[in-house]
Amino acid sequence: MVLEGDLDGDEDVELLDLAVQSAEHSGKRVVVDLSGVAYLGPEAFNTLLIPLQRGHALPWLIGPLPQHVEHLLTVTGTREHFRVFPTLPQAAEAARDSTPDRPPEH
């Protein structure tokens, strides 16, 4: 899915959650393009973390990530838990070469 603009309202979070849930239920890998996001609010960010709580892998993120998103991932300590790719073709290539999504083992 491609996200753009400011993602900070209740409607934005609800739509993002529905999209992530739909992708999870389809059994397909969730890939989120954040390159066009001007602002990622805390609720929207938390929505990207919810799949892990549901027993699914976190979405793969496509960039280039805006500086504020990189900062958010770094200060929250979640950067290492997301797979981040500079482009969609690179994520697609990695998906072809990988096993199905599973939550990371800690």
UniProtKB/TrEMBL annotation:
Coiled coil: none annotated. InterPro entries: STAS_dom (IPR002645), STAS_dom_sf (IPR036513). The keyword Transit peptide does not apply. Residues 1-95 form the STAS domain. PROSITE patterns: STAS. The keyword Phosphoprotein does not apply. Keywords: Plasmid. This is STAS domain-containing protein. It comes from Streptomyces liliiviolaceus.
